[in-house]
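pipeline/complex-builder :: batch 7 item 3
reading input block
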Amino acid sequence: MTSPIVETRQLRLQVGDRVLCDQLNLTAAPGQRLAVLGQNGSGKTTLLHSLLKLCPVDEDRIHINGLPLTQWSRAELATRVGILFQDNHDDMPASVHETVMLGRLPHLRAWRWESADDFRLASHALTIVGLEHMAQRDVSSLSGGERQRLAIASLLTQNPSLYLLDEPSNHLDISFQIKTLKLLTETVQQDGSALIMATHDINLASRFCDQILLLFGDGTYTTGSNTDVLTDDALSRAYGCEIRHVATESGTFYFPAS
Amino acid sequence: MSPFRQYTLLSALTGLLVISIVIALSSGSVSVPVTTIWQQLINPTPGIEQQILWELRLPRALAAFVTGGLLALSGVIMQVLLRNPLADPYILGISGGAAVGALSVILLGVASIWITQAAFAGALLSVFIVFGLAGRQQWSATRLLLTGVVISAGWGAVINVMLTTSTSNNVQSMLFWLMGDLSQSRTDSWHFALLLGGLLLILSQARALNALARGELMAAALGVNVPRLKLILYFSASILTATAVTVAGSVGFVGLVIPHMLRLLGARDHRWLVPCSVILGGSFLLLADSLARTIVAPQQLPVGVLTAMIGVPAFLFILHQGARSS
């Protein structure tokens, strides 16, 4: 059996005094795609940030490639784990090309310049997300959706073995949502990497992921395969409104009933 | 931007630096021909021209270059640290603290002996006050910026009290100090060592700066030790600014505008922006000071007036060109 890329053991997520999720046991093996679902403020982002040491957490309870987070330096961790943030900050000027090249930063040694391979990876990533003709444009001139695609290209350039995606469908139109998630999930399956995505879209989660973590926001959670977790009862309880599903030829779809 | 364009920019700036040095040495109330400058630099022969060059213009040109380089470098750092395009070396109150120190000794009549030390002490005091109030635990850019701006305003009030209660004789020298003036400036080798050391230190962090420009979380996610980087940036920018201020008073505009000019010219990667800023900042202040000495000669203007007079149209021109091409 292949060892998991990420594993949490009895992890507690909290913000201030509020416990969002307690005794969380989670694993993601190579090729696995895990969706994190739950209401606003239920701890989805906190979980993703915890896995990358971006917020205070008990680092002994999180293992990446079998090693506890305490033994990972931030620089080493960034070569294995990459994140797509919910918001991008573009206060300072930068071109599309410069932004996508930032993905190579964790892989470069001090005082070294990017190699031809790094440039190839970056321009390949830009081509995949359809931004290759905008490489010299200033980031501030891009639309919201283009910025999101740029951030995804930057993450692909970073080439991590664990992809953390925080609301990856933000700002994307419906065709790019499908294209992008298809691309990312295929990449994960081909490379033997793993993917954890926090999303508010149950349908995207059920379509592209094979594992679901449903956070109830009161410290409890349920996790397992899509069919085990995505029941009307559990979803209705997690979101605080009645949710029903409809089975069609192209899959199961979820919608709010009230 | 391709490496070719980056090298072209760096070469052009080096050319500009050489031209600025020649102008600074040849122009003034007595103009010295370029050939004579060359002879005097290689093989000094005693005479009036040797005195003018070696005792007046060269020390002043060196002071102008160092001050400009220090301020531009500090400006780059502050803009990334605060992720605010309006940030300049003085935004956190360093120049205010230095000014209160300098003005105090002018008021006490011991300016000729103590002004450098007093300005430096005032600057450091301000650096530690701001850090003590904003920097100890989780310091966000906004918290640091607000604390700095408020402390700056406090120093401004103290400066105004000093100006309004001083004799007119003192007020004259105070105003020159406040506007930035190189006529009394002298540099030592340690000023250059500090500029070079600061340049190398920041160059070693240049890639991390590229990441920090996209936000602290992004930088941390890309493997940057953000708390350590912020400490390095805050204290190096503070010391660079404090040194610049003790050489020439608070010369405005250089630290704000030089980094932006270079970004608009395409040098946004800090591995290029940092060295280019030092060269352009130095050249810019050399040119401004040459004009300050000659424009109403034999009278001299404070160089801080000239930096704005050249900088405003130059910056607006580049901004306009940039807007048209993008």
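note: Chain B has a mean pLDDT of 89.
queue -> next item
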